Amino acid sequence: MEEDLRRKAVLTLGGAVSLPEGYVLPCRVSHSTAGPGAGSGSAVFAFGRFRVKKTITYGEGEFQLVVDEKGRLSMTRKGKPFMRRVRIEPVVRHAPEQAFFNLDPRCMYRCAYCTSPLLDPSEDKHLSVDRIMDMLEESMLLHDVKCVSFTSGVVGSVDETVDRFVEAVRAVRERYPDMPIGVEPYVSSREHIQRLKDAGADEIKINLETPRRDLFAKACPDLDYDAVMDLLRDAVDIFGRGNVVSNIIYGMGETDADLDIIMERLCRMGVLPGLRALRVNEMNKQRLIDAGIRWTKITPQKAVDLAEMQMAAMKRHGLTTENCRTMCFACRCCDIVPFIDIRE
Ligand code: SF4
Ligand code: SF4
């Protein structure tokens, strides 16, 4: 396996990066309310063609950022050399090169692995469209913003949540006609998907979350596996093949064969499967136990093997991540991305 790819897998799955005492990051610290680092300060570390977003700390961490006398950065792991050259990439909003907004981290559902609704209420970042547009304008002045993405928990009702997405997408589309826009909503009807497309979204992510119905029932007790599958079909009709993504979280007791079967099924439908390793932390651990989920330890080798399986499924159906312009495949910070991190 390519050395830097192995390092990306180790870094992605590992613990926090500790910064030298008194070291000030050359860019703003990201405080996310969604994704694997939700609730913590984080920064993006890049090396070669790879990048990884990591929780940062001035205390103990599995990885240590080292700054030499000329200001050059490297990284050690448990005190041993790990990466000779590291760069820190600026985060626009949550992700490098993209303004990714969480419209509301609260959620009326109870997915066992999800930490967004558990964040301290003081971190509530319910965003109005005016506030989003102000933040986006500010970001455009400071950075080369390549895309805008939206996610959200479900607050009030699914209809109301979709309304908020539509309003935000429409406002961005009106102001920036050429900006790629990605949405990661929870939807419950074909009409919801059509409204998001009509408002100006280019890419949509509707998450299946697990490869099997029985695991889904444990992990997402309020949601409906078959409904998500049907909505993914509708999404491909409306957004087109390759413009629809569905996240699958692995490490919750499924087999590799389960993942292979579901990825083949999604790709045959024209949906890009996004693989994400389950991250167990102090916020979701008890909920996972209570839900009866028996997680497995994910090794770097497993993460790479599964990404190769994911790439093979996409290739069999003429799909690629290379055309994705928004959300996680464009960001590449939390997972091993086929066709970009892994090359043919
Ligand atoms: S629907 Fe589930 S995964 Fe999405 S924000 Fe709500 S609890 Fe989290
Ligand atoms: S890969 Fe996705 S979840 Fe991770 S930082 Fe990027 S946009 Fe956020």
Describe the structure.
The chain is an alpha/beta fold. 34% of the residues lie in helices and 21% in strands. The chain is built from 10 helices and 14 strands. It has a 7-stranded mixed beta sheet. A 6-stranded mixed β-barrel has the order 1-4-3-7-6-5. Bound molecules: iron/sulfur cluster (SF4) (2 copies). The site of one iron/sulfur cluster has 9 residues, from loops.
Compact overview of the structure:
The chain has 344 residues and is α/β, with parallel strands linked by helices. The protein contains ten helices and 14 strands.
Strand line-up of the largest beta sheet: 8-9-10-11-12-13-14
Task: Give the CATH superfamily of the largest domain.
Answer: Aldolase class I
Q: Note the total helix count.
A: 10
**What is the CATH topology of the largest domain?**
TIM Barrel
The hetero molecules present are: iron/sulfur cluster
Share of residues in helices: 25-40%
What is the overall silhouette?
A: globular
How many whole angstroms does the radius of gyration measure? 19 Å
Structural class: alpha/beta
Spatial separation of the terminal alpha carbons: 13 Å
Integer tally of domains: 2
Number of E-type strands: 14
- Label the CATH architecture of the largest domain: Alpha-Beta Barrel
Strand content: 15-25%
Low-confidence stretches: none
Order of helices and strands: HEEEEEEEEEHEHEHEHHEHEHHH
